[in-house]
Amino acid sequence: MLLNRDRADEIMDRERVEALVVSTPINTYYVSSWATDPSWGFGDLALAILPRDHAREGAVLTIEIDAGQPQQRDGTWMRIVRGYARKAGTGPGGILTDPLIRNDLPRNHQEAVASYLTELGLERSRVAFEDQGLAIDVRTILGDGFRFIGARDLMRDIRMVKTPEEVAHIRSASRKTELALQISAEAIAAGATCAEAERCFWSAAALAGGRPVFLLITPYRPGHGILRKDTALIPGDMVTFDATAEFAHYTSDIGRTAIIGEPNAEQLRRYNATRRGWTNALDEFRPGRKSLDVEKAVAQSIRDAGNPDFRACGVHSVGLEHTDHPHPGGGIHDFELVDGMVISCDLPWYQPKIGKFHFEDLIYMKEGVVEVVNDADGRLFSCVGGRTYRVE
């Protein structure tokens, strides 16, 4: 199960809510494991209701034509799947005179939610809704005795602590991202421009069974600066990668650097200092620490290890979202680390005359152990003789 039920119970008790109503594909999938191609692709066809009381059964609510679609992966653990009569493309309620649509179903998802909450005996309860517009519509149906709060960041709060199944998906996503980055770097070693290598990444991630999401690939020439992506690269040029690919909808986030030819002595010194400082700082990742404090400690550790120009790093949670922790208002806010998180740490650095590096690893915090989830030794490539070599 993707859902961390214990964590959900804890947060629901804290917020004094009797149920969660989620409606984006990400959270419907997380809460119920329901994901069909139509419900994921169209975005608001399927919803899930999770009562706090385990004696009350949760349910998936979706349009009738979606209910029989093939499930992605193992399908929902919820026994109850209810349809409603929205017909895709015609708006709420559909065309009820169509003989292919049952007339005894709720006419839209608002009525379906209100009906099931009433069936659960929660029509006068306090409920958390991911979509507050939907919550207002449901309250219009159920009356003023029904109360609601927002659940967007509440759901992110729940999702911070990963279940074993989630961690397995993130490991797979990381592996597929690394394979795609390796292919992309191999293309550069063989003479490809960054624009051509970018296309290699998108193809390779998909061929490995992942879904490519994001690649920031930047060619850089020391003493000159950033180059166009279609520039022919020459010895001494550097290429940074910041990449994300998904597996089973779970993300990775990995940064790497490739150098055309061998790194010079100063580049190697700065790289090794960054690597040592990062390794020395892993103990800073502890439950209860604030992310901004951890960022400052990591940056100082890298400076102390011999890279005095290193300025700052970035820490965020990873999971079903690239930033899988509460960030009210859409910003990247300070957050408290908790046991069971998977965290990304960006380590960008450049010095105009020396070069540009980008490294990024995923770490898993669990019961006092800090584990680097991805390949911890593949951060820097040297492109020589048509192939890549790891720089240790």
Give short descriptive properties of this protein.
392 residues, Creatine Amidinohydrolase, Chain A, domain 1, Creatine Amidinohydrolase, 2 domains, elongated, alpha+beta
CATH topology tier name of the largest domain? Creatine Amidinohydrolase
Rg is: 24 Å
CATH architecture of the largest domain: Alpha-Beta Complex
- CATH superfamily membership of the largest domain: Creatinase/methionine aminopeptidase superfamily
CATH class of the largest domain: Alpha Beta
Average of the residue pLDDT scores: 92
Write up this protein.
- The structure is a single chain.
- The protein has 392 residues and is α+β, with helices and mostly antiparallel strands.
- The protein folds into two domains: 155 residues, Creatine Amidinohydrolase, Chain A, domain 1; 227 residues, Creatinase/methionine aminopeptidase superfamily (Creatine Amidinohydrolase, Alpha-Beta Complex), CATH 3.90.230.
- The chain is 33% helix and 25% strand.
- The chain is built from eleven helices and 17 strands.
- Strands 7, 8, 9, 10, 11, 16 and 17 form a seven-stranded mixed beta sheet that branches. Strands 4-3-2-1-5-6 form a six-stranded mixed beta sheet, with helices on both faces. It has a four-stranded antiparallel beta sheet with strand order 12-13-14-15.
- Helix 5 packs across helix 6 and helix 8 packs antiparallel against helix 9.
- It is elongated.
- The two termini are 39 Å apart.
